């Protein structure tokens, strides 16, 4: 079993010293360099990009929102589906032109896609304008890699598949002043047969609870109102620490911190979700009554082939318990259509489960084979047309349910966190993550307010400030 490496303080200090040297390098040139960081994929990638921006800022870079003219470009890539990979290759190819217009531009690729040997090799051989590549294990070394490129002009590839690590104290630049991501653990031990994540992010490793508590406490003090705990499977938190603390315990502790905030988390694996976790959620007003619980398929044979290690019946039992202790629980999920070997009859089990649970929203995907995973080698007789037809039915079913649920909000009053402006209306989110638009002044942004719902669409709610 891979051993987790906690990056030593001396190593992290060495990276900070390199940041200082890079900043001095630019000052001697009389240049204030700018950087562009583009993120693909999940919230964990978003959290990683915030740390990349933090390191760049310590190196003297200012952030820009365009590739054009940027002195450093970092693309943080996703490997979860083929479409995400193709987008990256297309966008990387286009950067030939921006680099031609700005000769000193340095281009880096990182993230899960760079944890795949074939992808890193393709970048090395076919995209020679890319200066550096590093996989998630080497993110903490980014300043060192950047300095090598700046000083030598040579390309760097840090793609060794090392044991997973934890690096505390990396600077963070958050793009949002109200909502924050907090990674509580990294990696995954589940090896679902369709998923590349355990191969590119390594085994599960949990941060120390005191580090997480410190980070969340600092966020609350800085005025953050919506804090999301992140992990590939948060329900496995603590198993590797040997401290007798599980995820429900951590959540219970965080929910008792002083301040005005919502606490939420993702993602949960059904096989590890416990009644204890639901009980902790029900107990604390600060824990959002929203649960993202991916089911992936409603058919037991398909679930077994996916290596999910639960049945549809066990999944429904969890859902029913959650709703028994939290009647207003908002449920969202992930579902894959067209897994290798899935038949029309098995797909109908998925539709039946959706009709039974009545999710508030679903994240829906057509199966995408990932090289190196067991599912990629499975026979897959269904045609693309079969899968598209099933997918359309799935989306239509969920859209109908979402609209019905949204209609039930009309006439009710909900608490929302106002988070921005969109034309002549403010945007906000309910405790359950529902988008609500209403008219109001900008001074409400960042506040919890009461809104009476007056109308809805399939994907959002419309309201007015309650008296």
What this model shows, in words?
By secondary structure, this protein is α/β, with parallel strands linked by helices. It folds into four domains: 161 residues, Rossmann fold (3-Layer(aba) Sandwich), CATH 3.40.50.12160; 113 residues, Transcription Regulator spoIIAA (2-Layer Sandwich), CATH 3.30.750; 105 residues, Transcription Regulator spoIIAA, CATH 3.30.750.200; 53 residues, Beta Barrel (OB fold (Dihydrolipoamide Acetyltransferase, E2P)), CATH 2.40.50.140. It is 37% helix and 21% strand. It is built from 13 helices and 21 strands. The strands form six sheets. A six-stranded parallel beta sheet has the order 3-2-4-5-6-7, with helices on both faces. The chain starts with a strand and ends with a strand. The mean pLDDT is 95.
Question: How many strands appear in the DSSP assignment?
Answer: 21
What name goes with the CATH superfamily of the largest domain? Methylthiotransferase, N-terminal domain
How does the major sheet shape up?
6 strands, parallel
Counting helices, strands and paired strands, the structural category is alpha/beta
Flag low-confidence runs.
Answer: none
CATH class of the largest domain: Alpha Beta
Q: How do the strands line up in the largest sheet?
A: 3-2-4-5-6-7
């Amino acid at each position: 079993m891979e051993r987790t490496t906690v990056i030593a303080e001396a190593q992290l200090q060495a990276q900070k010293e390199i940041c200082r040297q890079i900043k001095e390098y630019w000052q001697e040139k009389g240049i204030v360099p700018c950087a562009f960081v583009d993120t693909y994929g999940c919230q964990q990638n978003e959290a990683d990009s915030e740390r990349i921006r933090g390191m760049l800022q310590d190196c003297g870079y200012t952030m820009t929102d365009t590739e054009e003219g940027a002195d450093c470009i970092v693309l943080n890539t996703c490997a979860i589906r083929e479409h995400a990979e193709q987008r990256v290759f297309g966008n990387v190819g286009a950067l030939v032109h921006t680099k031609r217009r700005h000769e000193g531009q340095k281009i880096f690729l990182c993230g899960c896609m760079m944890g795949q040997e074939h992808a890193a090799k393709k970048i090395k051989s076919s995209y020679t304008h890319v200066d550096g590549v590093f996989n998630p294990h080497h993110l903490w070394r980014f300043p060192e890699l950047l300095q090598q490129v700046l000083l030598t002009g040579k390309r760097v590839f840090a793609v060794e598949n090392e044991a997973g690590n934890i690096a505390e104290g990396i600077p963070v630049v958050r793009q949002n002043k109200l909502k924050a991501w907090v990674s509580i653990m990294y990696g995954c031990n589940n090896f679902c047969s369709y998923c590349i994540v355990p191969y590119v992010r390594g085994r599960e490793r949990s941060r120390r609870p005191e580090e997480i508590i410190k980070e969340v406490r600092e966020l609350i003090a800085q005025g953050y109102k919506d804090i999301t705990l992140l992990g590939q499977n948060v329900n496995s938190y603590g198993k590797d620490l040997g401290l007798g603390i599980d995820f429900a315990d951590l959540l219970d502790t965080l929910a008792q911190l002083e301040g005005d905030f919502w606490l939420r988390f993702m993602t949960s694996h059904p096989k590890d979700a416990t009644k204890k976790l639901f009980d902790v959620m029900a107990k604390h007003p600060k824990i959002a009554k929203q649960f993202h619980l991916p089911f992936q398929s409603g058919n037991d044979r398909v679930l077994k082939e996916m290596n999910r290690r639960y049945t549809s019946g066990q999944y429904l039992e969890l859902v029913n318990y959650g709703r028994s202790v939290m009647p207003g629980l908002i449920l969202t999920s992930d579902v894959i259509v067209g897994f290798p070997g899935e038949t029309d009859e098995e797909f109908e089990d998925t539709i039946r489960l959706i009709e039974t649970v009545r999710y508030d929203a679903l994240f829906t995907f057509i199966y995408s084979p990932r090289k190196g995973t067991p599912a990629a080698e499975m026979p897959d007789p269904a045609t693309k047309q079969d899968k598209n037809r099933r997918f359309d039915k799935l989306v239509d079913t969920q859209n109908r349910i979402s609209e019905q649920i949204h209609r039930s909000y009309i006439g009710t009053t909900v608490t929302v966190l106002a988070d921005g402006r969109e034309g002549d209306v403010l945007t906000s989110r309910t405790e359950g993550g529902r988008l609500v638009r209403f008219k109001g002044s900008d001074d409400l942004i960042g506040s919890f307010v009461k809104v009476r719902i007056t109308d809805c669409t399939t994907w959002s709610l419309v309201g007015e400030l309650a008296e």
